[in-house]
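User: I've been trying to design a sequence by hand for this structure and keep getting stuck. Would you show me what you'd pick, starting by listing the structure so we're on the same page?

Assistant: Good idea, let's start from the same input. This is the structure you sent:
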């Protein structure tokens, strides 16, 4: 058992150490904002170490991170999400954060991205938005233990799962992944993306700036 844990830990370190990717410095993010609605789900395949590990652990290997769209007090599109290692805007605290949409999908942190919508959201849209903002206002810390049973902390898919579950909807439809060294089964972005009630709103693309 000890040898197995050492092997897994070593492998994770190797994956993490190799995650630095060359990023085009002059890329512009293109998203059709006219199609967006509050409560939309945003998925990205990230460039961070944690993204590389998630992408390796998930056999689907599509997207490594997820958040939810709302508008801020200025009417700007923002993504509320829980993410490790991006605490520069939150005074060094790893808590649920709010990023402007184009920052969330910045080329320095995104390989590919997509916006999805739960097709029956209309009757519960305000409830969903209210729950997003409620959890954001609580400034919940990021859950490094990835434990769904701990409601005092939250990880990215857990946040989205909790928001919709408050309206009686299990976006993951019970799908879970068991990962060595973790006490509880984990929800991956792919577990939510497989929900057939999710419809594509638009893809995120990148073009070279003139």
């Amino acid at each position: 058992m000890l040898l197995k844990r050492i092997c897994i830990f070593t492998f994770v370190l190797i994956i993490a150490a190799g995650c630095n990717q060359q990023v085009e410095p002059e890329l512009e993010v293109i998203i059709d904002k006219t199609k967006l609605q509050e409560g939309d789900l945003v998925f990205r395949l990230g460039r961070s170490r944690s993204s590389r590990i998630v992408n390796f652990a998930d056999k689907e290997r599509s997207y490594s991170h997820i958040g939810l769209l709302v508008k801020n007090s200025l009417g700007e599109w923002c993504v509320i999400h829980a993410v490790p290692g991006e605490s520069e805007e939150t005074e060094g605290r790893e808590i649920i954060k709010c990023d402007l949409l184009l920052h969330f999908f910045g080329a320095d942190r995104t390989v590919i991205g997509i916006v999805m919508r739960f097709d029956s959201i209309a009757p519960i849209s305000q409830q969903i938005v209210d729950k997003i903002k409620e959890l954001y206002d609580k400034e919940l810390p990021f859950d490094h233990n990835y434990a769904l049973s701990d409601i005092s902390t939250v990880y990215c898919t857990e946040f989205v799962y909790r928001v919709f579950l408050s309206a009686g909807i299990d976006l993951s439809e019970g799908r879970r992944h068991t990962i060595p060294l973790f006490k509880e089964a984990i929800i991956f972005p792919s577990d939510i993306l497989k929900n057939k009630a999710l419809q594509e709103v638009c893809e995120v693309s990148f073009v070279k700036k003139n």
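That's my pick for every position. To get oriented when you compare it with your attempt: The chain is about 25% helix and 20% strand. The chain has a mean pLDDT of 84.
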